[in-house]
Amino acid sequence: MALVGIIANPASGKDIRRLVAYGAVFDNLEKVNIVRRVLLSLASTGIREVVFMPDYYGIVPKAAEGISEKHRLQMEVSPADICITGTQRDTLQASLLMASLGVDCIITLGGDGTNRLVAKGCGTIPILPISTGTNNVFSVMVEGTIAGLAGGVVAKGTVSGFPAVQPSKRLIVYKNGEAIDSALIDVVILKDEFIGSRAVWDVERIVQVLVTQGEPHNIGISSIAGNLQPVSAQENCGLTIDFASNGTLVRAPIAPGLIEVVQVNSYRRIMIGERVAIREAPCVIALDGEREIEVQEKDNVFVQLAFDGPQVVNIRSALHEAVGKGYSRLPPAE
Amino acid sequence: MELTKEKLLGFYETMMTIRAFESKAVALFAENKLPGFVHLYLGEEAVATGVCANLGTKDYITSTHRGHGHLIAKGGKVDLMMAELFGKATGYCKGKGGSMHIADVDLGILGANGIVGAGLPIAVGAAFASKYRKSDAVAVCFFGDAASNRGTFHESLNMASIWNLPVVFVCENNMYGISLCQRDHMNICDISDRASSYGIPGITVDGNDVIAVFEAASEAIKRARRGDGPSLIECKTWRQRGHFEGDPAIYKDPAEQQSWLEKDPLPRLAKRLIELKYATQTELDQIQASAAEQIEAAVKYAESSPLPALTDVLTDVYAG
Amino acid sequence: MKQMTYAEAIRDAMRVEMLRDPNVYLQGEDVGKFGGCFGVTAGLFAEFGPGRIIDTPISETAIIGSAVGAAAAGLRPIAEIMFVDFTGVCMDELFNQAAKMRYMFGGKAKIPMVLRTPCGAGMSAAAQHSQSMEAWFTHIPGVKTVMPSTPADAKGLLSAAIRDDNPVVFIEHKQLFGLSGDVPEGEYVLPLGKADIKRTGSDITIVSWSWMVQKALAAAEILAKEGIQAEVLDPRTLVPLDKEAILQSVGKTNKLVIVQEAVQTSGFGGEISAIVAEHGFDLLDAPIKRVTAPDTPVPFSPVLEQAYLPSVEKIVAAVKSLF
């Protein structure tokens, strides 16, 4: 029996970028609406069991409860047995638990930051990331109904493997010889001392950036790579960029509505397995757009590119393939 | 985010002063030395400190029934505050207001307030005055999660939005309205979600991280100062004591209380200050000791101050 | 002197005071281009613009609450509440905030603001648009309450209210807006707390305010024809109250009738009655009489409303009952 996991981050889409940039507000009612549409689509593809990350707001239960009698779900929707802390920890715990339950696909609602945490726990389970965050490259803006259909065909095994499900890269951060964290899209080194309000928007503070991918149509810090030397999600390399005053001027959309000019000193491709040292300390390291790690002067930090990130559902390819296999054609009515 | 060592140590000092004041109030109340009610700010020090660090004397704040922290962070004098808590003639309000009504108009403190949610429209008015005079002063309104259920919240955010006023609404979401936990008094978990209904930005920050609060408030206040209008900052925090002294807070889950005590804003800042070598433990201990000393001096001042004259009952009803 | 209606006199006071003091501004529902629900503010928007004549949303709480904040920050707001019946919506802002800030803060704040609002029945506006709520306000230490009965008083007292450093509730009467009279031009300020004898007489004192002054004067005309000389005393401001003037008049006439449009129980007439009983018992030759509305909501149907309102006839009858 196919089992789908849903991790909807109640905290995404509320950070300071609504003040310093023009970030959209994703209130939790809208997340409830999206999950409701996801559930209806999953049901239509024959998914009968869903496990979800519980949160204080109750996004998924509210979504299930709000479905009209007419469209009543033939589905068991149950919470993952984790202790709610209201922090990032919940996402990671839910992901680990879903992996141990052997779910067939995890649908996430959040930004790149949310998926970074899911990726840390989900192993080889395919992720279908719906964007409800601010700067998103990994997660995509997609109608929940469509996401649910794609998640359903992947979970049911109607489709599998490339290109319906694609591998991804990640950047692993090593501090004093130990892998302490990782990013799916970008690692940004900031001349800061504090994590503070987490988001990154002040380009003046950036000293170094590493990306797994970056294209001109992306938003966020990785768009600097996109506007310098694009790297796609499937290429066997990443990019490292050093910043300095009097460098080459590059324009890039680094946050919603914020098209900034940055000064690039040098940049180069990095290969899978390659390690790049962090040249500023003390500093703060942001992972996928959120300041996460405070580095002290004495710390030795480097970042390594790997092609062992989570499996990601490509919605377009998955649905194309599923249609090819006849998933949308039903036997004639008797 | 430009944060110097001096500024950070200043945050620590302010937070420690609030902590010392409130801790002393706990003891004094228990000794039956303080008449009336006291509502303490213990655990929420990072919010007032991080926000008020962005304000000058010309800027306004409106406070709440849990106002001691806001007053201290905005520059209020602890001896005059303590004397007021004692009901003495030398107190901020000559003993006529008490804990819930301390104000210092000269410092832009338009009063603590005994009515939940009453500060919101007053802050809107102060912001209006600033805009009317073409001054760049900003008004900051502190209020709690439960106050956001009042009509004053709705009317004030709406009015501030349509008039594009320089006001920053700072919601101290300490998860409880007296005894009622947030999920029992509203059907949303982030009060910042309410901002978009009024066409203003709303964000949520960790209210126990003074740096996060400072940074968010700095951007919101800069925005208001340059004429870009109001915004709402929700600071998630925790009231470590009962609603008022004497409330045993049996409605709180001890495990939840414990988990929040572990997120106490003071040790958190201290740890980072030491990591950055901005201070040694000894130096931080000195800050703590000097805060305690200052509060002891305030208590001495209050205790040795005269009571109001009985004829004072009749004065200050009307101006002029 | 210039002939003005009561509404024009109120407008003139605001205009003159706004020209005199840049800190004075007006805010309220539909006070701008629309000119006010009763036309009182007509033309001010054109003269002073949207920066000083400010249309607010229908948010009585924020109208008064923001006026309190602006006043605490040094401005002199005039905040209009379209009907006195709506002040229930902003009562906290008035009675817990505006009225108490000075006292609670130990005399270290000033709240110079005026809450302008029309009261009164007589236009079939029914129970929620016709009341006389002055006793609510007079029961709040820290607030002054003004209720003018003539165009000249309206101008002089509103100017005084605007210049006063305290929150003043300035209650206009809907039935008086069209009343004409001589009004001094330019700056004109009457002191708050000074009663005015609207008609002198020796046989009985009628104390009344607002619209009821006009009724009392009409009653006095009729009574005069019947040989009773009534003195009509208008306190003009209920807080502060000119107790001296009342006691002096009663000392002369030895009889007192109080006429109020408001319902009887806990009305301000009861307060005046108590003052005279306490301080002027020996001056009285007869019991004090009150002519008031009954203790009911204001009815809608014109016949019921007329029955409800104190009338000239009721005043005449009350006076005569003491002779």
Structural notes for this entry:
The complex is a heterotrimer of chains A (334), B (320) and C (323). Chain A has 334 residues and is of the alpha+beta class. In chain A, 24% of the residues lie in helices and 31% in strands. Chain A has helices at residues 17-20, 28-44, 59-65, 88-101, 112-122, 144-155, 222-226, 315-324; strands at 3-8, 49-52, 76-79, 105-110, 127-131, 165-166, 170-175, 178-183, 186-190, 206-211, 237-255, 258-271, 275-277, 283-287, 290-295, 301-306, 312-313. In chain A, α2 (28-44) crosses α3 (59-65), α4 (88-101) packs parallel to α5 (112-122) and α6 (144-155) packs across α8. The longest helix of chain A has 17 residues, at 28-44. Chain B has one domain (5-302): Rossmann fold, CATH 3.40.50. Chain B has 11 helices and 7 strands. The radius of gyration of chain B is 19 Å and the shape is globular. Chain C folds into 2 domains: 2-183, Rossmann fold (3-Layer(aba) Sandwich); 196-320, 3-Layer(aba) Sandwich (Rossmann fold), CATH 3.40.50.920. Classes of the chains: A alpha+beta (334), B alpha/beta (320), C alpha/beta (323).
Give the structure's gist in a few sentences.
Chain A is 24% helix and 31% strand. By secondary structure, chain A is α+β, with helices and mostly antiparallel strands. With 320 residues, chain B is α/β, with parallel strands linked by helices.
Keywords:
heterotrimer, B: 320 residues, alpha/beta, Rossmann fold, five-stranded parallel β-sheet, 11 helices, 7 strands, globular, C: 323 residues, seven-stranded mixed β-sheet, five-stranded mixed β-sheet, 20% strand
Q: Give the name of the CATH architecture of the largest domain in chain C.
A: 3-Layer(aba) Sandwich
CATH topology of the largest domain in chain A: Rossmann fold
**Roughly how many Å is the radius of gyration of chain C?**
19 Å
**Mean pLDDT of chain A, rounded to whole units?**
93
The number of domains of chain C is 2
Contiguous low-pLDDT stretches of chain C (5 residues minimum) are none
Q: What is the terminal separation of chain A in angstroms? A: 27 Å
